[in-house]
Design brief:
The complex is a heterodimer of chains A (92) and B (404). In chain A, 66% of the residues lie in helices and 0% in strands. With 92 residues, chain A is an all-alpha fold. Chain A is globular and about 30 Å long. The relative contact order of chain A is 0.18. Chain B contains 15 helices and 14 strands. A 7-stranded mixed sheet of chain B has the order 4-10-9-8-7-5-6, with helices on both faces. Chain B has a 4-stranded mixed sheet with strand order 1-2-3-12. In chain B, helix 4 packs parallel to helix 11, helix 5 packs parallel to helix 6 and helix 7 packs parallel to helix 8. Chain B is globular, with a radius of gyration of 22 Å. Classes of the chains: A mainly alpha (92), B alpha/beta (404). Chains A and B meet through helix 2 and helix 3 of A and helix 6 and strand 6 of B.
């Protein structure tokens, strides 16, 4: 029971950051972007390194966090990015 | 699957550029006859993309010193300074640089790229925070990857965003190193250094300014943006290069911080590269002396920069925020940027084609770098060609040609 509630909580948090990732990507790319946990940022969104950096800056403002570049190296999917954001928010 | 498969998108984009005309990334000069003139495909060509800001590549005294050095000391050092020792000229150049900047220490690197790679990866380490302007040069980004510090970017030339990042780090342990550039290489804008220095003073940390494009260009004596903005005391490290205003190759870092010299035995891009050859060090030393002795070169450069910048604006081109020795015209799309670049080259004007993602805001640029050695006639000829090619391609309104 306890585990179930925790999982539900985590999903809600992840959904929030996924939604924000979609909004940030849409704003930077100038087109409507829908993302899921498994969306591959380079392949599915056709995002180059510069656009990704600009998306990250939007997210940093949205969540009032700084996302270190060195931590972005392991991010491939929007799910990875969402997890990183949640980790950084928890730390903050 | 092959090793290069992951780069196929770049290969295809590159092929498309090559098919549009000459290859902007492999232009071959049949001859370079002065700081501002070359020959391409048999055509006399005005060089407007060389970062040769003071025109010192053909300085007679620098050439003579270089020739003497190569005859007396040979063609190369064939090793690094920690392994093979220093030539007397390496030490003399470091002494001259420290004196010029009024700092206790100077370290010379084999390229400007390596100076950033070495300094940034050494000054901050695990648990520290490296805070970069988002539009930083590739060498700064690569230096940040070579080290182990946490890397945070702030919005380009936005002191408030920098302050926000530093506030987020409040109470987080570790040193902070803020990195900005004197003049940004793509559109020639300068950092708001006074404001950035004030934030550094208020919130703590160290400040490094890369003066690669601003050395010899800005400041009453050519010490760069830190001098021009009157904040040299707030700048802890200055990195620069010999490959622009000093007309050779190599990089350096100066500072007055104690223990700076320890970098010589821990900074890998310094330790594991052959040192600069005698001819390069000799010409650089003389070029530095010439830069100091001839402030009129800087005045001529700035006057030339304004002539090109104002001229391009009058024609209707979209340029950067202010006149600087780097004048970039924003092109409406990649196709016309490539066509315009080809048209200019065919009409005897060589400059740099800069394509996204290497450009700010993902817009293609034609990047010109002006020199003190350009004559007014050359700049007017460049403007004439820009007007003709720009109007023919619909980049500017052709009507403006008559009034320009």
């Amino acid at each position: 029971m306890c585990r179930g509630r925790l999982a539900f909580g985590m999903d809600t948090v992840t959904d929030l950051s996924l939604r924000e990732i979609g909004l940030a990507a849409s704003k930077v790319l100038g087109r409507t972007v829908e993302v899921t946990h498994d969306t591959h940022i380079g392949r599915d969104l056709a995002v180059d390194s510069l656009a990704l950096m600009n998306i990250v800056m939007e997210l940093e403002d949205a969540f009032d966090i700084s996302i270190p570049l060195d931590r972005l190296a392991s991010v491939e999917t929007t799910g990875d990015l969402s997890k990183l954001i949640n980790d950084l928010r928890t730390k903050a | 699957m092959g090793l290069f498969d992951k780069h196929l998108a770049y290969r295809d984009a590159y092929k498309a550029i090559q098919q549009a005309g000459a290859d902007p990334f492999t232009v071959r000069f049949d001859a370079v006859v002065s700081p501002t003139e070359g020959v391409v495909d048999g055509r006399p060509t005005i060089l407007l993309g060389t970062n040769n800001y003071l025109g010192l590549t053909f300085d007679e005294k620098a050439i003579a010193a270089s020739v003497k050095a190569v005859q007396e000391r040979g063609t190369g050092t064939t090793g690094s300074r920690i392994a093979n020792g220093s030539f007397e000229a390496h030490v003399a150049l470091e002494t001259a640089l420290a004196k010029f900047y009024g700092r206790k220490h100077a370290m010379v690197f084999t390229t400007g790229y390596q100076a950033n790679l070495g300094v940034l990866s050494t000054l901050v380490g695990r648990g520290d925070h490296l805070i970069l302007d988002a539009d930083s040069h590739a060498s700064i980004y690569d230096g940040s990857r070579l080290g182990h510090a946490e890397v945070i970017r702030f919005r380009h030339n936005d002191p408030e965003d920098l302050a926000k990042r530093l506030r987020r780090l409040k109470d987080v342990p570790g040193e902070r190193l803020i990195v900005v550039e004197g003049i940004y290489s793509m559109i020639g804008d300068t950092a708001p250094l006074k404001e950035i220095a004030a934030i550094k003073r208020e919130m703590g940390g160290y400040l490094l300014v890369d003066e690669a494009h601003s050395m010899g260009v800005l400041g009453a004596t050519g010490r760069g943006l830190a001098e021009a903005a009157g904040v040299e005391d707030d700048v802890d490290f200055i990195v620069g290069t010999f490959s622009k205003s000093l007309g050779a190759i190599g990089g350096f870092c100066v500072s007055s911080l104690d223990d700076f010299e320890v970098m010589r035995v821990i900074c890998r891009p310094y330790m594991f590269t052959a040192s600069l050859p005698p001819a390069v060090v000799a010409s650089t030393l003389v070029a530095l002396e010439q830069m100091i002795a001839k402030p009129q070169l800087r005045e001529q450069l700035n006057s030339n920069a304004c002539r090109l910048y104002d001229g391009l604006n009058a024609l209707g081109f979209v340029t950067g925020p202010a006149a600087s020795p780097i004048v970039a015209a924003t092109m409406p799309d990649v196709e016309r940027a490539i066509a315009m670049w080809n048209g200019l080259l065919q009409s005897g004007v060589y400059l740099n084609l800069a394509l996204p993602p290497a450009t700010p805001d993902s817009r293609p640029l034609l990047r010109a770098s002006i020199s003190a050695a350009h004559t007014h006639e050359q700049i007017d000829q460049v403007l004439k060609v820009f007007a003709e090619v720009g109007a023919a391609l619909g980049v500017i309104d052709g009507q403006k040609r008559a009034t320009a």
